[in-house]
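TL;DR need structure tokens for one chain.
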Amino acid sequence: MTEAPTARRSRITPEREAELYEAVLDLLREVGYDALTMDAVAARTRSSKATLYRQWGGKPELVAKAIRHNKPGSIADIDTGTLRGDLHALTAREDDCAMQQNAALMRGLFMAVHANPDLLTAFKELLIEPEMEEFQRMVRRAVDRGEVRADCPALDYVVHMLVGAFATRTLIDDQPPTQAFLKSYIDAVVLPALGVAVN
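>> reply
TL;DR here they are.
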């Protein structure tokens, strides 16, 4: 019984899948998560609703996978030899324009997550947990290199610090997050908290 859906799923080419994800993101920016419907995605992409459900199961999974697909490469690909270099490289994956667009999109989705348990589950399974695993490997490398003490209390809060800076930049400063802001935040807040000297 599990082979038939897999066979059907293989009919969507990577190019077609990317096109569908881009349409989902466009609709999210236009109407938000709650107003986004599978009917609207089907109409925008000239797909059948049955195909969308067969491929993704439902709206939460489709949205989470679209966000994941939109990520600029994998954290696992970053290894500059220093934690500062890795964190700066992580920040440099998106230009300021893309960062501003994605910050607005994520703010809307964060609100939707609180009211939609299925979306929260999809986000955790498809986005948060894989990204956290990759990020923790980056931090463990810094510990293994001796850059950060293994018992540093700030180790458990690195992601919180970075996400907090990204998410609250607009709220506090009424400005979008930028590469320059995030890099200066990393140097002024994150690295000192970890005991890493910034030259």
